[in-house]
Amino acid sequence: MSKREKTDSLERPGAVKEVKIVLVGPAKCGKTALVQRFVNDTFTEAYVPTGFEKYTTKQKIADTSVDYQIWDTSGGGAYDSVRPLAYQDANVFMLCFNVGDQESLTSTINKWCIEIRRHCRTTPIVLCGCRADTRSVYNTMTYSAQARIPVTSEQALLACNHIGAVAYVETSSQYSNILVPEAFRVAAEVALGLISSQDKVAPSSKPASKKVCKEKKTYSVSSPTLNRINGKPDIKTDVQKTAKNCCIM
């Protein structure tokens, strides 16, 4: 089905589409807060470890009613052997990391992308930066004491391009009830084929995702590949060239 045909089918009044979204990423990166803000419009400071939770909700996209089946998976190592069971029939993955911690993005690239591609080689990925508000509190005592360095939007966009994700979105479950629905809208459009990897310009003829997720090499966000701000002042221009179809919110 062509992109135009898909769009036409979505624009039919009363059209209903089911979308299965699987949230994957390190523990405590903000996955559960993200889905609870979207489904229930609530936020809680207390951290409760997640096992496997399934949420359902609806969202209107144009004249289409999207029925979301959202699977919130645990980032704990104890679930490594059973977590992939939730990946079956996924339409799109939201690969999450904590914007306030560069190690979280490094983990997303070195472990979670590899795991997804091991089980679902072609399912599209949306890279999702959670807790974007932590950038503004970087200089507070808490983050300074823990020596956490936030991820810049430029680093996240380069990571998006590097792993072959279709789009990059940023959210703040604590302070914004606008960015979160928009992030899930983007994920739904990716799942429905309205935004595809063919629309995204890759730096080479081969999708970056196959390279990163196939080769188990250690990747650091602070490496020259992703952190060239000091050595290259025009980093934003470079980002636009290499990942211009990733979107940041």
TrEMBL record:
Alphabetically ordered keywords of this record: GTP-binding, Nucleotide-binding
Segments traversing the membrane: none
Keyword Nucleotide-binding attached: yes
Alphabetized Gene3D superfamilies for the sequence: P-loop containing nucleotide triphosphate hydrolases
Keyword Ribonucleoprotein (UniProt): no
Superkingdom, taxonomy of origin: Eukaryota
MF GO annotations: GTP binding; GTPase activity
Biological process terms in GO annotation: ameboidal-type cell migration; cellular process involved in reproduction in multicellular organism; developmental process involved in reproduction; epithelium development; hemocyte migration; melanization defense response; small GTPase-mediated signal transduction
NCBIfam families: small_GTP
Protein name per its UniProtKB record: Uncharacterized protein
